[in-house]
Amino acid sequence: MTIQEALEKLQGYEKATFALNHATGLMYYDGATIAPKGTAELRGSTLGELSRMGYELTTAPETVEMLRTLMENREELDPITRRKAEELWRDYDRTHRVPVEEYVAYQELSAKSDAVWHEAKEKNDFALFEPYLQQMFDASRRMAGYWEPEKAPYETMLSTFERGLTVAQCDAFFASLREKLVPLIQQATAHADRVDDAPLHRNYPVAIQRQFSDFIMDVMDIDRDHCIIGETEHPFTTNFSRDDVRITTHYFADQVASSLYSVVHEGGHALYELHTGRELARTCLGNGVSMGIHESQSRFYENIIGRSRAFCSVLLPWLKEHFPAQLVDVTEEQFYRMVNRSRPSLIRTEADELTYCLHIMVRYELEKQMFAGTITAHDLPAAWNRLYKEYLGVDVPSDREGVLQDSHWANGNIGYFPSYAIGSAYGAQYLLEMQKDLDVEAAVRSGKLTAINRWLEEKIWKYGCMKDPVALFESVCGPFRPEEYVAYLEKKFTEIYEL
Amino acid sequence: MTIQEALEKLQGYEKATFALNHATGLMYYDGATIAPKGTAELRGSTLGELSRMGYELTTAPETVEMLRTLMENREELDPITRRKAEELWRDYDRTHRVPVEEYVAYQELSAKSDAVWHEAKEKNDFALFEPYLQQMFDASRRMAGYWEPEKAPYETMLSTFERGLTVAQCDAFFASLREKLVPLIQQATAHADRVDDAPLHRNYPVAIQRQFSDFIMDVMDIDRDHCIIGETEHPFTTNFSRDDVRITTHYFADQVASSLYSVVHEGGHALYELHTGRELARTCLGNGVSMGIHESQSRFYENIIGRSRAFCSVLLPWLKEHFPAQLVDVTEEQFYRMVNRSRPSLIRTEADELTYCLHIMVRYELEKQMFAGTITAHDLPAAWNRLYKEYLGVDVPSDREGVLQDSHWANGNIGYFPSYAIGSAYGAQYLLEMQKDLDVEAAVRSGKLTAINRWLEEKIWKYGCMKDPVALFESVCGPFRPEEYVAYLEKKFTEIYEL
User: Fold this and answer.
1) Is the dihedral of CA A254, A260, A261, A263 positive or negative?
2) Annotated binding site: which residue ranges of A?
3) Pair (A177, A145) in one structural domain
């Protein structure tokens, strides 16, 4: 095959794989938002078939020949095509090692497992989910074994979601966080009475919260022609391409900050996807590069920007326009403290910025133990509850508020959680760098996040998957320094809790 | 290939085509309901690719060999497999005559055309849509030429949506309707003051209308675990399988009957799909057999049941529970007359039962002329307006309320409209047959449509595509007798308007 032929083949291959991914993504989105309840099995069957088509396309002899031709001539390719060839080869190299029937069965199992998890969570019935959970861990370990037979499976899973991340790095990172944060959390807890967020739990009608979500998306400068907001049990963002991004949230009448900050968080994911380079669109490079970089965007918007004094000062007047009675007695300073109230708690997605990483550590420890085989799915609830007591000092009253709270394991996203913590920590260094180029506080107080968006687009978003995540981060911030994140948290919460 | 091998291949083929159809269907549904505005081109590209995969699957040598093997041995097959082989062969025989690039381009054009139609309708800008409309007619005629080169293209289109239906039959049917109905409509119009439906145009909050839709779906005994209701500009029903059916409606605060009867109409479509035989599910036989039979279900529920005196007598008290103030002064008899108010009008989907078929005739005439080449898309608005004046006596004030009102042509559903009229007429004969087996009025007055559903399931729904539409209808009602439909309308409207 000539290079020219390979390049033409590549176009057809990209169109076809894009279409299959688009269809698959839409099917997940539909399932997680509006699909009728009794349709999970049907969806699983179709997802299995679509994955079979993807597998057959990726492992077809003519695809392999095309990729081989490109790889053999990679020095002659332009940088984008070269990167595509490398990424697609990597994907082929992983995929073809998995037997097709196992590959399809895994997709079907994931869909089924997700549906059972929904039901189990609703009914607070861990026993219902337990066999699926075990199967998902087993399947995940087996996949890792196929992909990189020479590597420890959990290492493979970690680097699947965050290329380059290792257990050794995570262990060191989490140990340093724990050492510094646990005493700080204990001090803040001892002075819990210094922050009262009762006004955030008054009655905030959901219909008006919905309007406020639209308003916030405007503030974030999110292009609504290419991004909608749906409702779901467990907020997430998905994207079919930079032209079609979907965020979701969940409303509670007595928790106005919950949906508000979930929209800011998911909005961060959406902005990243909406601004990946146009020249990369609908190719394997036209997405956010990794979960860690993705979470570094979403959590940067949610916490470092969204829970900053500057953002609170513009947010409160807007909120008062929508909810005048509920917030009549709240000052700017009170509001800033309220949305930053720190308290060891049960639910990760509702956790405050200070205690958040401890939630991640619980999951990380359990994933390692599951992969090591020292515990099974049956042991997970007790192990979960034990670690929550140990790390956060809280008693878990039900599995629904415990081991059943997250969808990740049900969906096979095992090894994913650490990227949340890494991503959170990255944010502190973004802020330091950003402050060198622009007056971040003034930008936030302007009432539009446009200047911040442009900085991140230029430094990070536009690259899509052109750079590996570590290289991308380092190109912006230099080496990762978790101590910056610890310093950021210490400063912020020492001040809020007057420690 | 042995029969056994062919039967195994058939299973794989069915799973794969089902998955592609499921993904395609979901993508259309999403596009018509919640997708962000700026995503039509993206969706068109993916729909094109999915259709390419379907084409390649259908025309693959191993598929053809499989189908040939089954067809050669069709006498040995069980009735379901035999029917599948015949239908799939027919599908292959049509598909492989169309060049693949033209097939894909047609799918992409449809998606694009639909998006442009939406915009053109919103802006009341026919010129925007005109080139797409012409292209859709041209493409449709070209497709018909490929499918059945020996036949007049419009005949092919008619029988694509209603197998067996011919121009001669339509001409005769419409002529007889026109002869009888036009004088009746003129009489009713002369006594228009005898029915006043002003109370239906008071303020009916959309949020409560939404609740009432859920209530109506319960009355119709629609399984909500497998059927949801969405919102869209132009109500439709779609189904991915008997396990996942989606209906849509559109709410107007000042038109309570509009969404109510659109839900009953779409509910009729949904019931049909939800009750196709379980043994046919996820195969080429697991759908309603034709548009005519489909419309005969939806319009039977909407009009013959839904606008009957019996249904009105149970409906009004329910409505009064939801909207006490709005309907306080309305009696049962008034309500019955209101929802049957007849008036020549502009919008087909809002037309009353008596004048409905004249709207269809306009479209039928124009489709014939477009296919004959005696007019072009450019001429359509004027031709439309002329026929509305001639048939219905109304002046069309804007293209939005005229030629741009329906999505069908934009989507390539050309030759589809006559099935609405045929389907409407079928209903009168269903009623006569049903009355032989059960007390229809008592069944309706019971407040649940279960008995009626069971009758239709047994006679029609469960067969899916096992019988051709004409054979299916005749197995229930004997030969088609349009005069029964005319008699039904004459009796009903003579009484309502006291003619």
Assistant:
1) positive
2) 265, 269, 295
3) no
| Strand-strand pairing, A227-231 and A244-249 | parallel
> Which among A175, A232, A212 is positioned nearest to A482, based on CA atoms?
A175
Judge if A146 and A185 occupy the same domain. Answer: no
User: How does pLDDT run across A209-245, given as a tens digit for each residue?
Assistant: 999 999 999 999 999 999 999 998 788 999 999 999 9
Chain A touched by B436 (CB under 8 Å): no
Query: Does A282 sit within 8 Å of B244, measured CB to CB?
Result: no
| Overall number of domains in chain A | 2
In angstroms, how far is the first alpha carbon of chain B from the final one?
69
Q: How far apart are CA A234 and CA B86, in angstroms?
A: 46
Q: Answer yes or no: do A22 and B46 touch at CB < 8 A.
A: yes
In a shared domain, residues A44 and A127: yes
Tell me if chain A has a CB within 8 Å of the CB of B34. yes
For tokens 């402050």, the residue is A435
Residue B214 in contact with partner chain A when CB distance is under 8 A: no
Look at residue A369 and tell me whether its pLDDT is greater than 90.
yes
Do both A124 and A236 map to the same domain?
Answer: no
Mean of the per-residue pLDDT values for chain A?
Answer: 96
**Same domain? B118 vs B205:** no
One domain for residues A216 and A134 = no
Q: What is the CATH number of the domain that holds B310?
A: 1.10.1370.30
A453-to-A429, A440, A450, A469 alpha-carbon distances in Å:
16, 11, 5, 19
Reported pTM: 0.94
Question: Is B26 close to A22, i.e. CB distance below 8 A?
Answer: no
CB contact under 8 A, B18 and A49: yes
Same domain for B310 and B409, yes or no, is yes
Buried b (16+ CB within 10 A) or exposed e, B61-78: eebeebbebbbebeeebe
Using a CB-CB cut-off of 8 Å, the residues of chain B touching A244 are: 35-36, 39, 42-43
Contact B243 A50 (CB under 8 A): no
Where does a domain end: B117, B150, B183?
A: B150
User: Which residues partner with A241 through β-bridges?
Assistant: A244
ipTM of the complex: 0.93
Query: What's the CA gap between B357 and B378, in Å, rounded?
Result: 25
Where residue B225 falls (left for φ over 0; alpha for ψ -120 to 50; beta otherwise) is alpha
Determine whether the interchain pair B38/A225 forms a contact, defined as Cβ–Cβ distance below 8 Å: yes
- Over residues A28-46, mean pLDDT: 92
- Chain A's closest residue to B244, CA to CA, is A39
Point out the annotated binding site of A for Zn(2+).
265, 269, 295
Does a structural domain hold residue A302?
yes
pLDDT for position A381: 98
A254 is a domain residue: yes
What distance in Å separates the CA atoms of residue A77 and residue B72, rounded to the nearest whole number?
A: 52
The string of DSSP codes covering A304-372 is IITTSHHHHHHHHHHHHHH-TTTTTT--HHHHHHHHT-----S-GGG--TTTHHHHHHHHHHHHHHHHH
User: CB-based contact (8 Å) between A291 and chain B?
Assistant: no
- Domain with B59, as residue range(s), is 3-150
- Please check whether residues B36 and B140 belong to one and the same domain: yes
Q: Does B205 touch chain A (CB under 8 A)?
A: no
Chain B CB contacts of A230 below 8 Å: 34
Residues of B in contact with A50 (CB under 8 A): 19, 23
How would you classify the pairing of strands A244-249 and B237-241?
unpaired
Q: Which two tokens stand for residue A218?
A: 């405007």
Q: Rounded to whole angstroms, how far apart are CA atoms A100 and A97?
A: 9
* A128 part of a folded domain: yes
* Residue B51 at interface with chain A, using a CB cutoff of 8 Å: no
Q: Compute the average pLDDT of residues B340-344.
A: 95
By C-alpha distance, the chain B residue nearest A231 is B34
Active site residue B495: no
Smallest Cβ distance to B50: which of A19, A38, A245? A19
